[in-house]
Design a protein that fits this description.
493 residues; alpha+beta; Multidrug efflux transporter AcrB transmembrane fold; Alpha-Beta Plaits; 4 domains; five-stranded antiparallel β-sheet; four-stranded antiparallel β-sheet; 16 helices; 15 strands; 51% helix; elongated
């Protein structure tokens, strides 16, 4: 028994199966991520290493070359580009296309960890990141105040705002710019050091020994056991002045005699301004594979609660909301898809001249598109401009088979056949032609989904989103479970 006969002779079975596909498609649509563009994660990994005080030639010889040799042994490396600047090395690693970006980043991280002991102790921990177009911030904020300093704002951001934002489900990186970080500067007077016969290194070593918090074992008695530690971490700047850094003729030498401790801020590396006023900027990104719209919505809800908890004088401003732009972009594509469907149905009515046949033909559009979301979810696609563009294109492909099937059923009905037989014969007669057109569409768009390079990543979801909708139209030409209904409708026209 062929597919048309099963659908027509077992209408309840066919309808339940197709209704289940439609329902699962609608359910999975609500679970899909929403992005402006498809995920185009490319196998590019960047390594940034800070080597303060070193000249470019020192950075190149002591850091860059060693990292290049180590990373060059990673599997799938295609090209390495490096730049050595004063106090900084930047290495960009390109892998062969097809290498998983996450695995590439982990491979680089492992290779650098293997040579970490060969680098100078003054070299800071390497920062390894991979290229991800969807890792851009979805929300940007600015905090200003007419009464509080940037340092006071920074304390509120670090202690209250940032932890609250990081707890939101789906939030990835939270980047802060324009903040002033506290720094304790210990300034030594070289003439005074010479007077006491001390060196800066000796003073630094003594301060390091005194200012630390380390465990010192346990004290056990018959009744109890106590943990012992040396609680030496300083909590105030003035405590440095009372540190004994040496002796001379059995007389202790205190730090205040050779230097001064100042409570200042670090050198400012970035600034932020909002409406011409100094501010602290906060950029919030989503986790890899997260839903940009849901993350932005959750962040804005949290911000509404935080506004009531801001210290007096502070103002929290929403500077940028990429999720709103993404939603508008997706809404525009949906609007085009709906308008295209309406015009397609109107043209069908214009040529067929019968509203019953037009309605039956129009059922193929929402039914096929809804079912497509199930397959898109299983393939790991997201709701974006490219995937919806593919569905928009499939609208015309969906309705043409419906027109052909209805016209053929009308012809068999006019030959005097009953509704059931007309539906069976009319659908079966052109089944091969319908399948041929569907496979032709698949042959055209399937290679698009497997293109390589950046363009391939961009158009993958476009090409592959058309295929399930085209496959669904095999089950919905005039709605095969509705073919019997089509036969009766055509017989009454």
């Amino acid at each position: 028994m062929s597919l048309p006969e099963i659908s027509i002779k077992r209408p309840v079975f066919a309808t339940v199966v197709l209704a289940a596909l439609i329902l699962m498609g609608i359910i999975n649509y609500g679970k899909m991520n929403v992005d402006e563009m498809p995920d185009t994660s490319l196998p590019y990994v960047s390594v940034s290493i800070t080597y303060e005080g070193a000249q470019p030639d020192q950075v190149d010889a002591q850091v860059t070359q060693k990292v290049e040799e180590a990373v060059g042994e990673a599997r799938g490396v295609k090209h390495i580009e490096s730049t050595s600047r004063e106090g900084e090395a930047e290495i960009n690693v390109e892998f062969n296309f097809g290498v998983n970006p996450a695995e590439a980043a982990q491979e680089v991280r492992d290779k650098i960890s293997a040579i970490r002991g060969e680098l100078s102790d003054t070299v800071k921990e390497p920062v390894i990141s991979r290229f991800d177009m969807n890792a851009q911030p979805v929300v940007s904020l600015a905090i200003t105040s007419d009464t509080a300093s940037l340092r006071e704002i920074r304390i509120f951001v670090d202690d209250v705002l940032k932890p609250r934002l990081q707890k939101i489900n789906g939030v990835g990186q939270v980047t802060i710019s324009g903040r002033q970080e506290r720094e304790i500067q210990l300034q030594l007077d070289q003439e005074k050091l010479n007077t006491f016969g001390l060196t800066p290194a000796a003073v630094a070593q003594q301060l390091r020994l005194v200012n630390q918090d380390v465990p010192a074992g346990k004290i056990k008695t018959d009744a109890q056991q106590l943990s012992v530690r040396t609680a030496g971490n300083f909590t105030a700047v003035q405590q440095f002045d009372s540190v004994i850094i040496g002796t001379r003729d059995n007389v202790p030498i205190y730090f205040w005699q050779v230097g001064e401790a100042k409570d200042t801020i670090k050198d400012i590396t970035s600034t932020a301004r909002y409406d011409g006023h100094p501010a602290i900027g906060i950029a919030i990104g989503k986790q890899s594979g997260g839903n940009a719209v849901k993350v932005a919505t959750a962040v804005k809800q949290e911000l509404e609660q935080l506004k009531g908890e801001l210290p007096a004088g502070m103002e929290l401003q929403l500077v940028r909301d990429d999720a709103a732009r993404v939603s508008e972009s997706i809404a525009e594509v949906w609007f085009d898809l709906i308008i295209g469907s309406i015009f397609a149905v109107a043209i069908v009515f214009w040529f067929l001249g019968d509203w019953r046949s037009t309605v039956i033909s129009a059922l193929a559009i929402p039914a096929s598109i809804a079912s497509t979301f199930l397959f898109m979810k299983l393939a790991g696609f997201s709701i974006n401009s490219m995937s919806l563009l593919g569905l928009s294109l499939s609208v015309g492909l969906l309705i043409d088979d419906a027109i052909v099937v209805i016209e053929n059923i009308i012809r068999h009905r006019q030959m005097g056949k009953d509704a059931r037989q007309a539906a069976v014969d009319g659908t079966k007669e052109i089944a091969l032609a319908v399948m041929a057109t569907t496979f032709t569409v698949a042959a055209v768009f399937l290679p698009v989904g497997f293109m390589s390079g950046v363009d391939g990543q961009m158009f993958k979801e476009f090409g592959l989103s058309i295929l399930p909708s085209s496959a669904c139209r095999l089950a919905y030409p005039a709605g095969r479970p509705w073919s019997r209904l089509a036969a009766y409708a055509c017989g009454q026209s």
